[in-house]
Amino acid sequence: MASLSTTLLFLSFCFSLLFFSSFSQEDPQKTYIVYMGSHPKGKVSTSSHHIRFLTETIGSNFAPRSLIHSYKRSFNGFVAKLTEAEAKKVSEMEGVISVFPNGKKQLHTTRSWDFMGFSEQVKRVPAVESNIIVGVFDSGIWPESPSFDDAGYGPPPAKWRGRCEVSANFSCNDKIIGARSYRSNGKHLENDIKGPIDSDGHGTHTASTVAGGLVRQASMLGLGLGTARGGVPSARIAAYKVCWSDGCTDADILAAFDDAIADGVDIISGSLGGSSVKDYFNDSIAIGSFHAMQKGILTTLAVGNNGPEFTTIVNFSPWSLSVAASTTDRKFETKVKLGDGREFNGVSVNTFDLNGTQIPLVYAGDIPKAPFDRSVSRMCFENTVDKERVKGKIVVCDSLAVPGGVVAVEGAAGIIMQDESPQDDTNSYPLPASHVGPKPGALILSYINSTRVPTASIMKSRGRKRNRAPFVASFSSRGPNPITPNILKPDISGPGVEILAAWPSTVSPSGAEEDNKRVLYNVISGTSMACPHVTAAAAYVKSFHPTWSPAALKSALITTAFPMSHKRNPDGELAYGAGHINPLGAVHPGLIYNASETDYVKFLCGQGYSTESLRRLSDDNASCSANNSGTVFELNYPSFALSTNASNPISQVFRRRVTNVGSSYATSYKAVIVNPWRDLKITVKPSVLLFKRLGEELSFEVRIGGQIRKGVESAALVWDDGKHKVRSPITVFNANLHSLD
Ligand SMILES: *[C@@H]1O[C@H](CO)[C@@H](O)[C@H](O)[C@H]1NC(C)=O
Ligand SMILES: *[C@@H]1O[C@H](CO)[C@@H](O)[C@H](O)[C@H]1NC(C)=O
Ligand SMILES: *[C@@H]1O[C@H](CO)[C@@H](O)[C@H](O)[C@H]1NC(C)=O
Ligand SMILES: *[C@@H]1O[C@H](CO)[C@@H](O)[C@H](O)[C@H]1NC(C)=O
Ligand SMILES: *[C@@H]1O[C@H](CO)[C@@H](O)[C@H](O)[C@H]1NC(C)=O
Ligand SMILES: *[C@@H]1O[C@H](CO)[C@@H](O)[C@H](O)[C@H]1NC(C)=O
Ligand SMILES: *[C@@H]1O[C@H](CO)[C@@H](O)[C@H](O)[C@H]1NC(C)=O
Ligand SMILES: *[C@@H]1O[C@H](CO)[C@@H](O)[C@H](O)[C@H]1NC(C)=O
User: Record's CDD domains (predicted)?
Assistant: First the structure.
């Protein structure tokens, strides 16, 4: 509470900087977001409206100072310092949809494009692609990267209304056409640089994955050598810096949506998310992406890195595209060679070269620092290992020791980690490192015990072919959708493991301060890396079909995805959605499951949101009358999910519509059901759809019966006209999923 008295409130309009001082001991003020939906038709909301509103609600001498930011370009609302009692009062006022505290969210190769059959030579529509503007919500951007060289690009598209926050350190060009930064609390931490410049690396990496230009001979100190390129290399980038070293606040994320929608971006990519489940209208990203959808802008989002448990997904609104992370067919292998000549394969991204030099080897369990004993020090927790005895040696730790372990063994010549899950280690470390499984781990420990002067060496990583790819990474968050379980989330999976992309030369590749390495390309992993691949694929599809709605783009990507294997991921669709992204296929989906703002409003009515709220959300006079309310099973979603009690017989009907975007001749599509386990009884009515013209929309029903025997069961509906296979995953899962037996 005391810190509030020194909070600098940056008021971005007509008021000057003020120290905040007014709060009561009993009910301290906190920052809240007050969300009020769309602008009233024909009116604009301004900060003076919001001040008047606050004044009327909570008292005259208080409001102006408490208002931190007004959203006024693309939707209506504001950020204010309020007590809990005031927040409650505000939430009861007419016109207010939700009031929620300003929470924090986190930022959760090139080979990757070839791996999905998307080569450098694919057909493109350069004139259209170069008019596509991708809004990247992230940690900013480092414009000096060769990936953002603007040689050969024309001026920004005429529709662009955005801005570039130019400073001594930062300017835009014809590739990065816009860059803004958001820090509503006005405080900058030591590790952060003011303005849109990327002092983390994450934003540079994601932006270059979407739309970086072609850079030959890119590698991370020799690893992953090849041509680095974004998925839509001609497209333009608008960077919205909402994330700083202490996270990304809801207030700043919403401010970026408010601007990006009005600036004229075509698509938004967000590799960030919260850690708690929030209702759609208490979540900044769900709110922002709803207004983006209203304006025809698709928002692509990472599902989070909290897997592999169920219901860990963080971005799951039906109007956005939620992306899981999978492997490519490349992996990095890091050999460990012992003094007795034995070699073991480990995993990591290790660019250090010890040239085979044998170095003394020690087990962290053998060198605890008082008062800790070996049972603690073996895990390399910070301050538990005797630092004198690690100096110049390679240390073996019994866990994935990031980042504490690296600190614990500071001064060491290298680190070998051993545990059950080396395959999940996709990190680079500030020292030579390899991560081995329990079998080689045990052999290494017994070698240490049996040898007077044990030694080892760690080799530089080498790229290797990964078999059985793709599968979803363990870290990738899983469904089901926590708010609407009967909408399948994630939607789709994209490459997110060991992805090479641009990096600021001002930031170390491991992110550790003691790491003095500098690289122009870095290999990192996360759903954050998967998301921009899918954003780029959506932008690529949009370059062929500029008028398609966000739902149409989603449908095209979902129904053309490469099916993935239930064998590798027993949690099936709840891990990978429809499957692995197929950018080329998505240009010709044949049929699409379209949805408009009205469809989402109907869905929300059916979910119990009030007429009052929805009227404010939507531009038209939406009301939840009987004929304007739909169940979740009627939302025209391109996939089918059903949460059920394992012991109950199932009986559920889904209603859908498909639009012909394939052939201008009469075509008939036949429904094919893929049902490997036969536990489910699936029928489609009608089972043949005859389209007479382009743009024609036809309806059908899918009926699911039977009973499930496994936690997650998978099937699919494929509409097939002999040329297109329009595949929608069908998944039925136990409502009480904890873990799979
Ligand atoms: C410019 O960047 C340097 C280091 O990258 C930093 O120390 C300095 O504060 C920056 N200046 C401004 C005005 O941001
Ligand atoms: C938003 O969260 C608050 C609690 O923070 C809750 O009382 C309210 O019902 C939620 N609103 C919506 C629309 O879900
Ligand atoms: C390995 O060899 C390279 C090239 O000869 C040299 O630059 C580097 O310092 C050597 N590394 C070690 C740890 O000896
Ligand atoms: C190594 O020796 C220690 C104590 O001497 C013992 O507790 C441990 O089990 C041994 N480890 C292996 C892998 O043999
Ligand atoms: C989908 O619906 C939207 C909104 O109603 C409409 O603008 C669009 O033309 C439709 N079709 C496609 C292919 O996007
Ligand atoms: C919305 O409702 C208002 C008042 O009920 C009415 O004047 C207006 O014409 C309606 N607008 C639309 C688009 O239906
Ligand atoms: C219900 O829908 C019909 C046709 O779609 C429309 O004419 C009618 O006005 C609607 N009724 C209400 C109460 O919205
Ligand atoms: C499952 O069964 C329980 C108890 O019979 C019931 O409360 C719950 O609503 C059921 N859930 C579903 C998804 O049918």
Answer: PA_subtilisin_like, Peptidases_S8_3
Query: Which residues have CB under 6 Å of ligand 6?
Result: 620-621
Give the pLDDT band (50/70/90) at residue 26. low
What secondary structure does DSSP assign to 208-238, as a single string?
A: HHHH---EEEEEETTEEEEEE--SSTTSEEE
Higher pLDDT, 478 or 512: 478
How many CB atoms within 10 Å of residue 277?
Answer: 15
- The token pair that represents 540 in the structure block: 């690529």
**pLDDT one-digit tens code per residue, 135-154:** 999 999 999 999 999 999 99
pLDDT higher than 60, residue 656: yes
Distance 365 CA to ligand 4 centre (A): 10
What whole-number percentage of the chain has pLDDT above 70?
Answer: 91
Burial 216-236 (b: 16+ CB within 10 A, else e): eebbbbebbbbebbbbbbbbb
| DSSP states along 640-675 | EEEEE-TTSPEEEEEEEEEEE-S-SS-EEEEEEEE-
Right CATH number for 30-101 from 3.30.2350.10, 3.40.50.2000, 3.30.70.80, 3.90.580.10? 3.30.70.80
- CA separation for the pair 198, 713 (Å, rounded): 43
The Å distance, Cα 707 to ligand 8 centre, comes to 14
- The answer to which of 318-327, 560-569, 610-619 has the lowest mean pLDDT is 610-619
- Assess whether 623 carries a catalytic annotation: no
CB 339 within 8 A of CB 443: no
Does the annotation mark 138 as catalytic? yes
Say whether 192 is catalytic: no
Q: What is the mean pLDDT of residues 30-40?
A: 88
pLDDT, greater one: 533 or 624: 533
Is 273 in a helix, a strand, or coil? strand
Q: Which atom of ligand 2 is nearest to the CA of 100?
A: 5
Q: How many CB atoms lie within 10 A of CB 255?
A: 26
Candidates 3.90.226.10, 3.40.50.200, 3.40.190.10, 3.90.1150.10; correct CATH number of 123-329+472-547? Answer: 3.40.50.200
Q: By the 8 A CB rule, do 558 and 492 touch? A: yes
| Residues in the ligand 1 pocket, defined by CB under 6 Å | 167-169, 193-194, 506
Return the axis-axis angle of helices 202-211 and 527-544, rounded to nearest 10°. 30
